[in-house]
Write a structure and sequence with these properties.
heterodimer, A: about 800 residues, alpha+beta, eight-stranded mixed sheet, five-stranded antiparallel sheet, about 25% helix, B: about 375 residues, 11 helices, rod-shaped
Chain lengths: ~800, ~375
């Protein structure tokens, strides 16, 4: 909401400076978003008279002027404007002046060998308009003002405030409401509404009966007041109104239109004016019929439905009630008889209609926030007065159809609640004064007329659960629809008093060191994240939404936005990997040779969101080096190593994990796997990404990836620190190596499990340390070498013991078809 | 010169001249071996009379000892020379680089979330979470934002075609405030409506359909909620001052509270953070009233609206408290100096190397949450 200081002063008697007012506005919740004075840029420009105009000796299109700006000597000015002539009054910028519209600073210059000092300016050069065909020509009467600052002469010296109005403060969507709020702070006093309008007559007698208007939709339009003015002459609105409208960012159009806009901006009261000649019969507020069409003032056609309120005559709808008028029946230059509509529309209905039509307007903003339901008569009277004052004409009586909801709310309030909720101790009489300045009526029932309870009684009642039963009865003004409870009353007082005055109060604190608060899940996630970073992975944060194309290889997403910001950000990711692959691709395109990325976030499946760690490794697993030679690429085991390390850090029982397949179609079918605790409990999947997936996302070369499903990890609910009792074994462990020839497709994990199972007490480890395939082991065969660790428990193992154990190991392996290599 | 003296002199000369282990061994054999010259001499002692032995014994034994010691000394010297020579030959170019290991990083958003958890843990707050795909009730209605409320238009909500039980479209949460609702409802349920004190923060992803230089459609927010008896705006102010002072690690943080409007708080306040300029750089803290000082909008806050408390099944006449919501990305930018929000979500490794945190930079109260 924009308005000028002079406009504000029409309602507020104050000596405060613009800066003081701006600071106060912000401090009471009317946040200043901008403050400027157009005159600031125009200070050096003066009203000046061209005393002589003659030809330029060296140029046909230039003239040589002598300009009197009140200085001792007239300035010699070379001027190219065709309208420059002796005797005219214009606007002069002396040398050294910055020209805002042309972005340069005037310097004395020689133009075609003739010296020129300063410049007579066009409207565009002063950013006062678009006109650049000639210099500004002021009325002849301006001769008296020669030498005066142009900004002062033209009344441009006026600060313009731009204030953000929060959605609860409809009453401040008019300058008067802002003035009322300011007055409550003591920065000035609110003038009566009559004085703000100088000769305003709040009761204007009408001649003849009021127009035929009625409401058939009391739910959407409970009140429809109207009157006509016959014999008006439309035209340009007066300067003061144009200046106010311009300060609000509104373009003046014509008197009739400007008056409705002015009343709305000044008093927060939207109006609509119809050209009677364009109406047929009376006007009715009714629900639209489904499919009814209306072309609004913005020249767009809207299709309405039966929940929307329109104002219609017998030919159809002419106004989307409370939102925007129709193009066909608005006031124009030829209009001579007008009907002024001053209605009350139900906020919820306006909001729904506006949302459905995706149509916003100044009127909608006010009606959906709730205009003052008790201001219909005054609003109509003021508009009528402005029209008759400026356009002439004869007003009719007022027709009042329906009744606006003017019931006033009362709130029980205890002045101590200001401190118990607002944290600010404000003297009750001060509280009362603030509320009354804002238009509230305060009646102090318990303390009689004196709103100052004594201190002891206050403290005694601090413990009283009945404290919240107020001792004051406060009546809320009709324009404050937002105030509904005692908490709102507290807010009114603390905001006017100043939130900065609230003293900081420490929260109650339990004695001793703070207790741990993190849940096992949160701890697991933190550890997993830092484990991944410690292993050399870089954490990234990707968008939760991806494109349909990216989601497709991962089974598509269950959640697609109805209103995505773009097609690339449409589907809630079913997997962490598409975003990571895309990030890897971007890094590869920037020349990164090694890419290790991980992200901790959620996957969004049909019924729930799953915390997950995703990782992608691409490029070189090891760079070429003078020691190791050529660079190496990542393989599926790199992914598996990360998975195991991260799972371990997160607290998963990695010793109990089982290798499974079925990692998903987005992986290489032969180089991927899952790690599970039981067939259905998948903790992680990993592997080489399917070439078609990396190719689709533009990532070149082999990339490996993994996902760790954090919510599948079984976590101990109680994080005790006590461990099982343990002493290192007294006897030294021994190792024995075995080499087996097995079928080429036998999983090594099966052999390891068989070997370990040969003696569950003594064998504590079995590690594959060699894998060999070749002619020497035979077609379709491979050799696997296993180092078996034996941990004696009670006595050192004898040769016989070792022989027996070896036989058991071999026998166990043979069951898988293995053959001990000789 | 006696025999033994001559023998000693001969062998010491040879030992001195011996150039390697083999030559020395040959000398040892010639002198001290089974048939060596000194060994042979020693054997003659047995045939001597006790008197002769009295004289010759020490001489011959002395010669044996002297030669043996000389050989041992020479052997050690030769070995030492050989080791030195070998080590000299093993010289490497120590300017060559060792095998490299890659350095990982923690994203600043994660780091800040950990910092917040640490700071607020000290104030007695725990961390709560909730779903990002929310329903209309938790995101709006329960927060005192009915469907006709003008504040809805300010939320730029992302919607899904799927609807909730009430027929309203599911949506992406526009703020972390629905976690307030879920937490209060859980407490109401667990305590049968009696209620108990609640001190939580809820960091997480939030979404609004807004994209420009300073807005991304996904961003991070942290919600704070205190519900207790006798909590008022002074506590809110203290909590924010304390938290921001700890977070920015400065004692001179100044806040400005401005009245504002959020449907779910009453009274409501926007909080501005004072800044000043030190060494040509804008920093948080210092004198915001000074020549280069000023205020920047940081967060929204207020006393939880009684309707919200009631909507969650608690009695607003018994329980009251405050809530605040603050952008985590912005907190990170202000503390660590990033100027481009969009880079947070680009995954650029160069950015991660510069702005990321070491895995071991775990925020702690003793070490400082500033890592």
């Amino acid at each position: 909401m924009k308005f000028s200081l002079s406009w504000l002063k029409a309602h507020l008697e104050t000596d405060a400076s613009a800066a003081e007012i701006a600071e106060k506005l912000t401090s009471i919740g009317l946040e200043i978003e901008g403050i400027e004075n157009p005159a600031d840029a125009l200070r050096p420009f003066r009203v000046a008279k061209v005393v002589e105009a003659g030809p330029h000796p060296n140029a046909d299109k230039l003239q040589l002027l002598k300009v009197d700006d009140g200085s001792k000597e007239p300035w010699q000015v070379v001027c190219g404007a065709p309208n420059a002539k002796a005797g005219m009054i214009g606007v002069f910028g002396p040398p050294g002046t910055y020209i805002p519209g042309s972005d340069f600073t005037l310097k004395p210059a020689k133009i075609r060998d003739v010296e020129s000092f300063g410049m007579m300016c066009s409207a565009r050069e002063l950013e006062l308009g678009e006109d650049h065909d000639g210099i500004i020509e002021l009325e002849a009467g301006a001769a008296d003002a020669v030498g005066q600052s142009y900004a002062d002469y033209a009344n441009l010296d006026d600060t313009i405030f731009d204030v953000a109005i929060t959605p609860n403060r409809q009453d401040c969507m008019g300058v008067r409401g802002i003035a009322r709020d300011l007055a409550a702070t003591g920065i000035g006093s609110l003038k009566s509404i009559g004085s703000a309008y100088r000769e305003a007559q709040l009761e204007i007698a009408g001649e003849g009966s009021g127009p035929d208007v009625r409401t058939e939709d009391p739910e959407g339009c409970p009140a429809f007041y109207a009157r006509t003015v016959s014999g008006v002459t439309n035209g340009a609105s007066p300067d003061w109104m144009q200046r106010h409208l311009k300060s609000a960012g509104q373009k003046p159009i014509s008197l009739l239109v400007d008056i409705t806009n002015f009343v709305m901006l000044d008093l927060g009261r939207p109006l609509h004016v119809y050209d009677m000649a364009k109406l047929s019969g009376g006007l009715v507020a009714r629900k639209a019929t489904a499919g009814e069409k209306l072309t609004a003032l913005n020249d767009k056609e809207y299709t309405l439905d039966e929940t929307m309120t329109v104002i219609a005559d017998q030919n159809g709808a002419h106004d989307i009630g409370g939102i925007m008028g129709g193009a066909a029946t608005g006031a124009g230059d030829e209009t001579s008889d007008v009907l002024i509509e001053c209605a009350y529309f139900t906020p919820e209905n306006i909001a729904r209609t506006g949302q459905k039509l995706m149509l916003t307007s100044d009127a909608r903003q006010r009606f959906e926030r709730g205009v003052d339901p008790a201001f219909l008569d005054q609003g109509l009277a003021i508009a009528t007065w402005l029209i008759t004052e400026h356009c002439g004409g004869t007003p009719s009586e007022v027709t009042r159809a329906g009744t606006p909801p003017t019931d006033q709310r009362t709130i029980a309030y205890d002045p101590r609640q200001c401190a118990t909720l607002g944290g600010l101790d404000v003297a009750p009489d001060r509280q009362k004064a603030i509320l009354e300045a804002l238009g509230f009526t305060v009646s102090c029932s318990r303390e009689g007329g004196d709103p100052s309870p004594d201190r002891a009684a206050t403290e005694e009642r601090e413990m009283d659960p009945g404290l919240r039963r107020g001792t004051w009865e406060i009546t809320v003004p009709t324009w404050r629809r937002d105030v509904s409870g005692w908490q709102d009353i507290v807010e009114e007082i603390v905001r006017i008093e100043g939130l900065d005055n609230i003293p900081s109060t420490p929260l109650p604190r339990k004695p001793g060191v703070a207790k741990p608060t993190a849940s096992p899940e949160q701890l697991a996630e933190r550890k997993a994240r830092r484990a991944a970073a410690a292993r050399g992975l870089n954490e990234v944060v990707n968008w939760s939404f991806i494109s349909e194309k990216e989601a497709a290889p991962f089974g598509g997403g269950s959640w697609s936005l109805a209103n995505p910001i773009s097609e690339d950000m449409k589907v809630m990711r079913p997997s962490m990997l598409p975003g990571l692959i895309a990030a890897a691709q971007r890094n590869a395109a920037r020349g990164a040779s090694t890419i290790r990325l991980f992200e901790v976030g959620r996957r969004y499946l049909e019924n729930s969101e799953h915390p997950t760690i995703g990782l992608v490794l691409a490029g070189e697993s090891r760079a070429r080096s003078w020691q190791a030679g050529a660079a190496t690429r990542f393989d599926a085991y790199d992914a598996k190593a990360e998975v195991l390390a991260i799972l371990d850090a997160a607290g998963a029982p990695t010793d109990k994990l089982m290798d499974f397949g079925e990692a998903g179609d987005h992986y290489h079918p032969g180089q991927s796997g899952t790690l599970r605790l039981g067939p259905k409990k998948i903790l992680a999947s990993y592997g080489v990404l399917h070439p078609s997936v990396t190719k689709a996302l533009g990532l070149k070369g082999v990339a490996v990836a993994a996902e760790i499903f954090l919510d599948a990890i079984p976590l101990k609910k109680k994080s005790g620190h006590m461990r099982d009792a343990f002493a290192p074994p007294a006897l030294q462990a021994v190792t024995r190596d075995f080499a087996f020839i097995v079928d080429a497709d036998l999983p090594a994990g099966d052999l390891v499990r068989a070997v370990k199972g040969a003696d569950k007490k003594l064998i504590t480890g079995a590690q594959i340390f060699d894998l060999f395939e070749g002619p020497s082991v035979g077609e379709g065969k491979k050799s696997l070498a296993v180092e078996v660790t034996l941990q004696p428990i009670e006595a050192t193992l004898t040769e016989e013991d070792l022989k027996a154990l070896s036989d058991k190991v071999v026998a166990s392996a043979v069951k898988l078809g293995a053959e001990l290599r000789g | 010169m006696s025999d033994s003296e001559a023998i000693i002199a001969k062998y010491l000369g040879q030992i001195e001249a011996a150039g390697d282990g083999d030559a020395l061994e040959a000398i040892r054999v010639a002198a001290l071996g089974k048939k060596g010259e000194i060994s042979v001499l020693l054997k003659t002692l047995g045939k001597m009379t006790p008197d002769e032995r009295q004289v010759e014994g020490p001489k011959i034994n002395g010669a044996r000892q002297t030669v043996a010691d000389a050989i041992a000394a020479r052997k050690e010297a030769i070995e030492s020379e050989a080791l030195n020579a070998r080590l000299a030959a093993e010289k490497l170019d120590m300017t060559l680089p060792p095998p490299s290991t890659s350095k990982g990083t923690v994203h600043p958003v994660s780091q800040v979330m950990d910092e917040l958890a640490e700071i607020f843990a000290d104030l007695g707050f725990s961390v709560a979470t909730g779903p990002e795909i929310e329903d209309d009730w938790h995101n709006f209605t329960a927060l005192n934002i009915p469907d006709t409320h003008p504040a809805r238009a300010m939320h730029d909500t992302f919607y899904f075609p799927q609807t909730d039980d009430g027929g309203m479209p599911k949506l992406l949460r526009t703020h972390t405030s629905p976690v307030q609702i879920r937490t209060m409802m859980d407490v109401a349920k667990q305590t049968d409506g009696a209620g108990e004190p609640i001190y939580i923060i809820a960091p997480g992803r939030t979404y609004r359909s807004d994209s420009d230089a300073t807005h991304t459609p996904m961003f991070h927010q942290v919600e704070g909620l205190v519900i207790d008896k006798g909590i008022h705006m002074g506590h809110l102010k203290w909590t924010l001052e304390t938290f921001l002072g700890a977070y920015f690690e400065r004692d001179d943080i100044e806040l400005r509270l401005r009245p504002s409007y959020f449907p779910f708080t009453e009274p409501s306040a926007e909080v501005d953070l004072g800044f000043s300029v030190e060494n040509g750089r804008r920093i948080i803290g210092g004198d915001p009233h000074g020549p280069n000082g000023g205020w920047m909008e940081l967060l929204g806050s207020g006393m939880v609206h009684p309707n919200v408390i009631r909507n969650c099944g608690l009695d607003p006449d018994v329980w009251q408290g405050f809530a605040f919501g603050c952008g985590i990305d912005r907190l990170a930018m202000l503390k660590y100096g990033m100027d481009d929000l969009r880079a947070f979500f680009d995954g650029d490794l160069r950015w991660a190397d510069h702005y990321g945190f070491d895995a071991l930079d775990v925020p702690t109260l003793s070490g400082g949450v500033g890592a």
